[in-house]
Specification:
- This protein has helices spanning 7-30, 33-50, 65-73, 80-83, 177-185, 207-221, 253-295, 305-316; strands at residues 53-59, 89-94, 99-104, 109-113, 125-132, 140-144, 164-170, 194-199, 227-230.
- By secondary structure, it is an alpha/beta fold.
- Helix 1 packs antiparallel against helix 8 (305-316) and helix 7 packs across helix 8 (305-316).
- The longest helix has 43 residues, at 253-295.
- The two termini are 46 Å apart.
């Protein structure tokens, strides 16, 4: 996986965990309501920082959404012959035991062990969750969404809550009127979080043809996307969908360009999230120290659990030491 946690993010995560442990010790000793609130706040920030980056793939029928999702994950995780053209979203995430969770229109969900896709019952499926113990899924989760042109006239494309949105368009007819209409139906998406990928770029035939498509995409779609790239779609090999060990995928130069663009967006998103968590941590530190000193006068001067907690917060966020 090219997208890895930065050293700065790792240090921030380590310090947040240290404060959470100090909160646990102080709470066990005091059962303090203020410490419980501080603990909840820092736990929430820790989870926010560690949450996998979620990437959603959009586009019309047969533009390669599932193939590109597999390439980002680095394995044949999504069986294209099964999930292609489905009318529901497929969410791939990490879990210790392989399974498929089926969500139906009646609000129910059912887990099927072994990662085997179930047969459709009488109640319409609204979403599938594919759970796999792949290490890369600790860092990245993927949504493969229904084809935008198969949702009926006037339908709004399904838009899962994701961090990065990848719109796939066929290079031979890139950014058609229906592409644009479907993209504009989605809820507002920050331009910096949206990517446009021209798939099947290996069919364009020449660099001049590709450059012409690139210029047209930049002219017509640049306002909606933070980056535009190409991807070839030629299959390297055929693998059975029921293969137990997902095979590694080979990549062409086009695919590498696509991957570099996506991973660059992942890094940028993580950096923004890190800055947000750091800012919220500083604010929480100020409030936490004021609350702890108010509830435990003199604790800052002793070596007890509350004093150790205050010292840990001050070491993490010196700006909080002004709250006396």
């Amino acid at each position: 996986m090219e997208a890895s946690t930065s050293d700065t993010s790792t240090e921030l995560d380590r310090r947040l965990h240290a404060i959470t442990r100090a909160c646990e010790m102080a709470y066990e000793a005091t059962q303090s309501e203020a410490i419980s609130s501080v603990r909840s706040g820092f736990k929430s920030l820790t989870h926010q920082l560690a949450r996998p980056v979620q990437i959603a793939f959009f586009g019309e029928t047969n533009v390669g959404k599932t193939t590109l999702a597999n390439r980002i994950l680095g394995a044949q995780v999504l069986p294209t012959s099964v999930v292609a053209n489905t009318p529901y979203s497929v969410h791939v995430r990490h879990g210790q035991m392989p399974s498929v969770i089926v969500h139906t229109a009646d609000g129910k969900s059912q887990r099927h062990a072994g990662g085997i896709l179930p047969k459709s019952g009488t109640t319409p499926i609204t979403k599938l969750e594919i759970v796999l113990p792949l290490p890369q899924l600790r860092e990245i989760e993927v949504f493969d969404t229904p084809s935008a042109d198969r949702q009926g006239p006037g339908a709004i494309p399904h838009s899962p809550r994701a961090d990065i949105f990848v719109w796939c368009t066929n290079a031979s007819r890139a950014w058609s009127a229906s592409d644009r209409a479907a993209r504009l139906k989605l809820p507002p998406i920050g331009r910096e979080r949206a990517l446009l990928v021209a798939t099947n770029a290996d069919t364009l035939g020449s660099e001049a043809a590709r450059e012409a498509v690139r210029q047209r995409l930049q002219r017509e779609a640049d306002a909606l996307f933070g980056a535009i790239c190409f991807s070839g779609m030629a299959a390297d090999s055929k693998q059975p969908d029921d293969q137990r060990e997902p095979p590694a995928l080979k990549r062409s130069e086009d695919d590498l360009s696509f991957e570099k663009t996506v991973f660059r967006s992942i890094r940028a998103f993580r950096e923004r999230r890190q800055r947000t968590v750091r800012r919220l941590s500083d604010r929480l530190s100020r409030l936490a120290i004021a609350a702890l000193i108010a509830e435990h006068p003199g604790a800052k001067q002793d070596a007890g659990p509350v004093g150790q907690l205050i010292a840990e917060i001050e070491a993490f966020s010196p700006v909080g030491t002004n709250q006396q």
